[in-house]
Please model this.
Amino acid sequence: MAGAKSAREGLSARGLVSVVSATILVACQAITVAIAAGWAIAGLFGLGNIGEYALMALFGLLAAYVSLLYVKKAIVAETNAHY
Model:
């Protein structure tokens, strides 16, 4: 197909900017929600500071993992996109 990019060509500059900016947005939201959820659940069950920090760390790691999955999917979507 003439003019279509193959997946081997990688990300264009525009695609890279799209992936990076969308990833920053999604990661910030996911980590913020994770920290807030850890704080709220620890407060609800009276787990104290240690429980609060543990839940924040656990949910933060989950949010970081989800953000990593998002980056992988975004790169695949941008390399397969046809402009």
